[in-house]
Each structure stands twice: as C-alpha cells, then as structure tokens.
C-alpha cells in the first residue's frame, strides 16, 4: 500500500515554456501532499504543502506565481513550473501524507531539464 | 527554521559489517522517520517512530526515537550490497518534515 506515482519521470523543455508535473496517490486518499526540490547530492528542500481544496502553503523563498500548485482531488496534486529557466532544472519529488500521521510516501521524482 | 544534523555524511563499509547513523537537533520533534533513496528515485520510508524512547525494527534495520525527542539513530546490521544508497532522517513537527542532509552508504562486497 501507500503508492505514489509521478508523471512525467523526466522532461526537457525550452526556456520560457511551462511544464506540469502530476502527483497521484494510487491506493489511498491524501488530504495533504508535499512538493520538494532536490539538487544533486543534496537533501530534500520543501517547496510547498498542498492541501486538497485549498491554496497551497509555500515555503519562504519559493515563488508561488512561478510554481503553481493545484490539489483538486484527494488523489491528485499538480505542480506547474511557469516560464521555466535553466536555473529551474532540478529533480522534483512529491509526497503524500497518510492520515495526518507525518508518514510521507514519495513519488519516484521528475527530472526537469530546461534548455 | 529547524535544522537537523545528520552524521556521518558518508560511510564506506565491508559487506557484513554493522552500520550506525544518527540525527540530532536543538528542536523537539513529534515524529522521527528514516528513509532510503536510490539514485534517480524518490525516498522510500524505512521506519517511523512516534514515541520518545521508542525502539523499532524492520528486518535488519533498527531505529530509536531519542528520549529527549531531539535525536534519533538508525542501525543496519549485517550489511549487504543492496543497502547502498542515501539514508535521510526526517523530523516531524508543525505538520511537516524537516530532513537531514543524508548519509551516503557504500558497501564493498
């Protein structure tokens, strides 16, 4: 149980375009999902907390207009990187929380490369 | 914000050896979780701890929630090559997890 999928697994886009990443909890309902960014050989940096049916809560320093998050259902959250630039290239990982337990189950990640 | 100090940063061991890593903080946490991440993949939850002093095992893995709620350790016994990866601790409070910087484990067959 507690499986989280992410799509796409990798994407290459041109500078100035927007990219949408989907995160789905496959076998449980997730009121809360999280979006992380990870640089090579670095830890997980929380970008935002996504709550179903309400606005996401962004961490300090994360531009909410650049990283749009939508949590339209209990099994789906999306992250849209708008007007992507090369510095947005990174590994983006989502997670879904089980029953407000702090237990987060992670998706396999999305490798974004902006050229 | 809250910070976790995870050590060691990396370890090189021989197959069969035991491994220990830990996380400490000046902050109190309600939960401690340990994850393993393989290259290019998302972290996988290994053990979750919810009570100060709690000692929990998952196969060859054992983790403890420190009595002060400010630290946790993870032990791996009789390591095998597939234990290779990055291990992260996560401290839970204020409805989110704070992660350590990870311990890179290399196991030589």
Task: Give a quick set of tags describing it.
A: 115 residues, seven-stranded mixed β-sheet, 11 strands, 0% helix, B: 109 residues, six-stranded mixed β-sheet, five-stranded antiparallel β-sheet
Mean pLDDT of chain B: 95
Secondary-structure element order of chain A, as H and E? EEEEEEEEEEE
Q: Structural class, from secondary structure content of chain A?
A: mainly beta
Largest sheet of chain A: 7 strands, mixed
Q: Which value, in Å, is the CA radius of gyration of chain A?
A: 13 Å
Q: How would you characterize the overall build of this protein?
A:
- Chain A is 0% helix and 53% strand.
- With 115 residues, chain A is mainly β.
- In chain A, a hairpin with a 2-residue loop joins strand 7 (67-73) and strand 8 (76-81).
- Chain A is globular.
- In chain A, 35% of the residues are buried.
- By secondary structure, chain B is mostly beta strands.
- Chain B has no helices and eleven strands.
- In chain B, strands 2, 4, 5, 9, 10 and 11 form a six-stranded mixed beta sheet that branches. A five-stranded antiparallel beta sheet of chain B has the order 1-3-8-7-6, with no helix packed on it.
- Classes of the chains: A mainly beta (115), B mainly beta (109).
- The A-B interface holds A 2, 4, 6, 32, 34, 41-44, 46, 49, 91, 93, 95, 100-109, 111 and B 30-31, 33, 35, 40-45, 48, 88, 90, 92, 95-97, 99-102, 104.
């Amino acid at each position: 149980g507690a499986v989280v999928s992410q799509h796409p697994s990798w994407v290459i886009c041109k500078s100035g375009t927007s990219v949408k990443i989907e995160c789905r909890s496959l076998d449980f309902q997730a009121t809360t999902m999280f979006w992380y960014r990870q640089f090579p050989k670095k830890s997980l940096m929380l970008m935002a907390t996504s709550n179903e049916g309400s606005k996401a809560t962004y961490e300090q320093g994360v531009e909410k207009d650049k990283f749009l998050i939508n949590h339209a259902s209990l099994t789906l959250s999306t992250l849209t990187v708008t007007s992507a630039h090369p510095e947005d290239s990174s590994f983006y990982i989502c997670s879904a929380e089980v029953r407000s337990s702090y237990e987060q189950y992670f998706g396999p990640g999305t490798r974004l490369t902006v050229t | 914000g809250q910070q976790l100090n995870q050590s060691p940063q990396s370890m090189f061991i021989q197959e069969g050896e035991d491994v220990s890593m830990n996380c400490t903080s000046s902050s109190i946490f309600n939960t401690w979780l340990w994850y393993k991440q393989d290259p290019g993949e998302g972290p996988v939850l290994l053990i979750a701890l919810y009570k100060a002093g709690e000692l929990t095992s998952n196969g060859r893995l054992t983790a403890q929630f420190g009595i002060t709620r400010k630290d946790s350790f993870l032990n791996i016994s009789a390591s095998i090559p597939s234990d290779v990866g990055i291990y992260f601790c996560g401290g839970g409070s204020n409805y989110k997890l704070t992660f350590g910087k990870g311990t890179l484990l290399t196991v030589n067959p």
